[in-house]
Design goal:
It is built from three helices and 27 strands. A five-stranded mixed beta sheet has the order 2-8-7-4-5, with helices on one face. Strands 9, 12, 13, 14 and 15 form a five-stranded antiparallel beta sheet that branches. Strands 18, 19, 22, 23 and 25 form a five-stranded antiparallel beta sheet that branches.
Amino acid sequence: MKKISILILAFISILVFNACVEDEDPIFVAQEAGEPRIVSPNATVSLSRETADQPGVTIVWEDANYNVATPITYTVEASPGGSGFNTPFVAGSTPERFFSFTIGELNALAINAGLPTGEEGALEIRVKSSVGTNGGAEMISDFTILTLTPYEAIIPLKSLFFVGNAVDTNKDGVANDSDWDNGSGADATNTYLFRDANNPDVFYFQGFFEANEFKLLEIQGQWQPQWGLDNGNLSSSDILGGDPGAFVVPTAGYYSLELNINEDELTYSLDPIDASAAPVYTSMGLMGSARTGDDSGWDANANPDTNLTQSPFNPHIWYLEGYTVFNGELKIRADDDWTNSWGANPGLSGQGNNNNDPNIIVTAGTYDIWFNDLDGRFILIPIN
């Protein structure tokens, strides 16, 4: 009789679990649940640009145990060795028990996770399991360590910039019909949106807009692809086969723009914000070893701040065009002082919190650099 009672109790538990998994955020009791366990050993991987398309490494793990058969999503995360996954970089997700990288993908992952190029470093890889559409019941694996030396590479990422009479693209301080101009090369003056550090399809911008219209473009000097609206929904010329309509700003003021251009998402929001309490800084500059190639780039007495230009239309937007850096680190600070400064581990885009942020790790090259002191976002646009 006792055995029968135990079996009935177990059966009821499984029924409760199955009912919960169908919810947005599954809640269940899993007394013997176990996190995924990585079985791939620590490894040393040789990286080179010549072998970028060849297989690099495959991370393998044992299934997470949720005590019942249910679809599981595994998210692969990377972090510099010894950082404790304080700011993990998402490498990808899969329903499988393995994730493979080519040499080039592994090199890009190492750079985005914050490893400097040309130096041997450690990259820690872990796996996070979840179930349900909202990623419920997360469990985190142990980690494996990859030892590698990233090579210099500019990672090709899509960028978006403004054009239209709701914004000031020619930097004359006003938004009017002349700001529909899409320059190229040295004539390119358009303001960029800020790319998410972990999702290259997500972009942000907070700033002032006139009551008028704008579109978003990808390539300076070219009108295609262009992004706008189709019956109120985010779309592009590539998707429609023709030009989309413009975004419309109903009233002049400060707005927060956010969009996801992944074709499986295609979402956007344009919402008013109150920026009246935001400080307006006198100057904004760069500090760091990437300015000089050595630690003298941190010495303001020997090498004063490299100043960014303040937008005459958007006083919280700052930019520096065609600036060449060395392999190294940067930080952005206001008014030649460390009281207000911003950084973040990723190199080409990120968001600082003005709170003892880590340094920005950058790869040698020439960039347009944009910074927004309203939300601490920055982006480096490689110049070919």
